[in-house]
UniProtKB/TrEMBL annotation:
This is Tetratricopeptide repeat-containing protein. Residues 1-21 form the signal peptide. It comes from Treponema bryantii. Keywords: Signal. It comes from the Bacteria. InterPro entries: TPR-like_helical_dom_sf. The keyword Signal applies.
Amino acid sequence: MKKNLLTASIISVLFFFTACSSGPKRQMSITTIQDSCKHSIESANACILNGNYQQAEEILARARTQALSIDNYDLQLSVSLAHVSLYLSYNPPEIEKARLYVENAYELVPSTTKRKESELLCAMGEARILIAENAVQENFKTIIDKIDDAKKVFKDSPYNHAQCDSILGDVYRLAGRYKEADKIYNEAAKLFTDQRYLSEIGITWYKIAQNQSQSGNQKGALEALNTAIHYDRLAENSMALGADYYIKAVILLKGKPTEANRAEAKKALLHSAEIYTAANLEELASKSLELFLTIE
């Protein structure tokens, strides 16, 4: 009897320790809402790139509610900066709304987990506003210094590093320093390509085309634009494709266009309008047709 009791006791002790060691470890954090919020922000950014601004607005409203509900300041900052991108994407840009969200983002910085990075992300948003306002000349050194600082901090974050390059390219282009702009735009394009950010690749090549055109290199501009079209097709980015063909016409009509250039420009504008119409972007389609009607 005693032997049986002893055996039972040993088995009980072994079972207790086995159960303790093999039991599932409890999570020290739950990220269900956080993950959903991050997904919402990514979806909103995709909508912005594709010109679905109303949908982006709705998604960001939901993301803000999610971020607030879990008291996550990093996510609240991301939502505010996504709003900056949204309002700067309008044509014309809604500068004052974008500025309000940058101010809100700066207010959130002290409560975020990485204050330095958060502050620089806000500075990038602020730089985009100055670019949209065409206020680069009077703020040139300030923007360059701040974004160069951001590049150093984001050296291990390819996406943010490439965004810094894209901003610097814009600044150099608007300052008329086309050679420097081309170099840094191409660096951004390479980073985006290496990381397979399709929409950003197309947008960057669109900027390269703009820069080449402004520097007087029509051939280089059209070649860059063909690259932009290639990637925008891969990204199924209707808004960007419509813009590609519109700017193609603008480039062809620059200076003293030949008859062949005018004919090609007309073709590009009609195609631009077709794409915009198919994507339910009627206002942009109208602008393409308006330019078409001015060509003799």
